[in-house]
Design a protein that fits this description.
By secondary structure, the chain is of the alpha/beta class. The protein has a domain at about 5-155 and about 205-225 and about 250-260: Rossmann fold. Helix content is about 25%, strand content about 25%.
């Protein structure tokens, strides 16, 4: 079984747990609560009327939240269950959105369009093994003058073990294989055995240089001394919606964001 098939099967299982978890708060979303965090809302700005492609959208809460802000959205994810749940939720809440089941690297086989914005966020990069191919795809789906935006966990975080010690190299060359036993949302156990995750952790320079090498102009790179999700070990909440390392506080980077533009005569 190849790495992406392993990940597809494990994410199918995890999605069934995530739908009912407090972490994702689908009940609140149904009542009108946005799943977006303050960083992406502020940095994306006004998106009403713009077409937006969301890569690795999971079961669509952020995609649908972007649609509620007026964007014309398409969400893509490798998980069959995620796309099914996203489509069901969009229909239930009458939010106009299109969802497509595909590996990011195969998306050109199922989607023929271009967009004002390509978007990806939180916990997406570590499922990609080839950033050059990823950046090529982003460029191909952007209109001239279009914007790529991402907000993501900082790669430094993945060097730390559960005791907040630097235990792994920041510069990784091999995929990391792990057995999936629990959901990161509430530690609930998966029902299937032998589920595996294959992940690839990339340095910040790898991410930035892949975008530059594929025709995108970096407009900003921001780093943040806190997390907006309590999904890593040994975090403490310092204010509502902001968690930092219990050991290092705000002395280390926790997240980063990038906005890049495709060269062209149009602008957003």
């Amino acid at each position: 079984m190849d790495s992406f098939e392993n990940n597809r099967q494990s994410w199918n299982e995890l999605t069934t747990l995530h739908i009912d978890s407090d972490f994702y708060n689908v009940a609140g979303f149904r009542q009108g609560k946005s799943s977006l965090k303050h960083i992406e809302i502020q940095e994306l700005g006004e998106i009403g009327g713009k077409s937006l492609l969301h890569l690795q959208c999971h079961f669509g809460l952020d995609t649908l939240s972007l649609a509620r802000q007026g964007a014309k959205v398409v969400g893509v994810d490798i998980s069959d269950t995620s796309i099914q749940k996203a489509t069901e939720l969009a229909g239930e809440l009458k939010i106009p959105a299109k969802f497509i089941r595909s590996n990011v690297y195969d998306i050109e086989n199922v989607l023929d369009d271009t967009f004002d914005i390509v978007y990806t966020s939180y916990g997406a990069m570590n499922w990609l093994n080839d950033l050059d191919a990823w950046a090529k795809i982003i460029n191909g789906y952007l209109k001239p003058g279009g914007i790529f935006y991402m907000v993501e966990f900082h790669p430094f975080i993945y060097t730390l073990n559960n005791k907040a010690e630097i235990a792994d190299s920041y510069f990784k060359s091999k995929p990391l294989e792990s057995v999936v036993e629990h959901s990161y949302t509430d530690k609930s156990r998966v029902s299937k055995r032998n589920l595996k995750h294959l992940e690839w952790h990339h340095s910040l320079s790898e991410v930035v240089n892949s975008l530059i090498a594929n025709g995108l102009t970096i407009e900003f790179l921001n780093e943040f001394p806190y997390q907006v999700y309590n999904c890593f070990p040994n975090l403490k909440e310092v204010e509502s919606g902001k968690w930092v390392s219990e050991k290092y506080g705000e002395k280390i980077p926790h997240m980063f964001s990038i906005k890049a533009k495709k060269v062209g005569s149009d602008s957003l």
